[in-house]
Amino acid sequence: MVLLALFGGLALLLYGMQLCGEGLQRAAGGHLRHLLTSMTRTRLSAVFSGALATMLIQSSSATTLMLIGFVSAGLVTFRQSLGVILGADIGTTFTVQLLAFKVQDLAMLMVGVGFALVFFGRRGLVKSLGQAVLGFGLVFLGMRVMAEAMAPVAESALARQVLVSLSGNAGLGLLLGAVFSAGMTSSVATIGLVLSLVQQGLLPLDGAIPVVLGANIGTCATALAASMRASADARRVAVAHIGFKVLGVALVFPFIHPLASLVAGTAGDAARQIANTHTLFNVAISALFLPFAPWAARVITMIVPDDMTPADNPFKTRYLDDRYLDQPALALGQATREALRMGDVAQGMLRDAMRSAATTSSTTSSARSSSSCRAWGRRPCRPIFCERRSGWSRSSATSRTSATLWTRT
Fold first, then answer.
1. Is residue 140 part of a domain?
2. Nearest CA to 240 among 303, 317, 177?
3. Is 124 helix (H, G, I), strand (E, B) or coil?
4. Lowest pLDDT segment from 75-84, 260-269, 272-281, 391-400
5. What percent of the chain shows pLDDT beyond 90?
6. 347 in a structural domain
7. What are the residues whose beta carbons fall under 8 Å from the beta carbon of 118, sequence distance 6 or more?
8. In the chain, count of helices (H) and strands (E)?
9. Helix, strand, coil: what percent of the chain each, to 5?
10. Is 86:290 a contact under the CB 8 Å cutoff?
11. In contact, 10 and 147? CB cutoff 8 Å
12. Alpha-carbon radius of gyration of the chain
């Protein structure tokens, strides 16, 4: 029953996050696309736009997927995307901080309010906001289910001994956090499970920090899988996302115990300490790597070279992709770009057709002029070249050229 309750709680948490992200994304509409494409001129503004977009859609993986699409479409350059990636890492800490609040008792109220807005709302904005509230309610309900499922485990001496032994191996905790986060395509779900264990006293802070670090690495798997069929710049975005996380974990991992001592002084609640660890880690790596973003772009460009492919077929779609159907702002932007590209192709075809028609008309006019010269009984015409010097007859000259050239004598 414990495993079944944990599975159900995780399912509610993941589904609630999906509903919340979709609702807020629909409510934002095209503003989200504008936020990620226009506010990337400076590195600080790019960090701010990435953090704000991730807070709205409640998923750094979704922000990175949108960014990969924008880079593939040429709306954002690879260098501009680095600041957005670091900002997305900061934005994802907002959800974890919300989970650390003990508001599980308000979960059913939020579910009821969200359902009422979705069911009785008439305008699209009201329905989208209701879906977001319903999603938040399901997230807190999932946390409540997992916390209640851990209560019997906390009374088991065997379970405590197993978890304590596992927490003593930081490398194993890092691996478990990465695998769970990659499998559930969400670092928040993994950290939510860790919060449930910590709240019941089953996992100490020193053992929870490696799992949190591993969850930050595992969340990069979604972006890596989405960039496989994309352009070279889009693959560079995924590599940058992974590189920042791996380097950050490599720098922090040897100092887990000092980090635990530092975080322990930030709050008295164990769940809040875990949330602060996640926030401190992501803010620190963003502040550390942001000044070196231009050099990082050069290194990643050398690691991931440009595509060596032949010219694209202009009659095949270039910007449409089924992967963007779950992101309306990105899908509409890609459809607009494809329509404009098709218009350019059609305009080029019309221009070529008009040029060909003009050439054909000129050739026909020349032929008619020659025929009229003969019909009016004027002096006979001859080729512009000398037949005696060339050694060609009129028939042979005609066979070697597309048309015989005549002139008055």
1. yes
2. 303
3. helix
4. 391-400
5. 2
6. no
7. 127, 130, 131, 134
8. 20, 2
9. 80, 0, 20
10. yes
11. no
12. 33
Going by C-alpha positions, the residue among 276, 226, 196, 271 that lies closest to residue 12 is: 196
Give the number of other CB atoms < 10 A from CB of residue 315: 8
CB under 8 A, 24+ apart: contacts of 8-12: 8/142, 8/145, 9/142, 9/143, 9/144, 9/145, 9/146, 9/149, 9/196, 10/142, 10/146, 10/184, 10/189, 10/192, 10/193, 11/142, 12/138, 12/139, 12/141, 12/142, 12/145
Count how many domains the chain has.
1
In a domain, 22, yes or no: yes
| Res. 401 pLDDT band, cuts 50 70 90 | very low
Question: What pTM was computed for the model?
Answer: 0.70
Residue 340 lies inside a defined structural domain of this protein: no
Residue 145 CB contacts under 8 Å (≥ 6 apart), including other chains: 5, 8, 9, 12
Q: Which range marks the domain in which residue 185 is found?
A: 2-158+166-303
pLDDT at 323: 63
pLDDT digits (tens, 9 = 90+) for 88-122: 888 888 888 887 777 667 788 888 888 898 888 87
Q: What is the pLDDT of residue 384?
A: 45
> How far is 226 from 87, CA to CA, in rounded Å?
20
DSSP state of 383: E
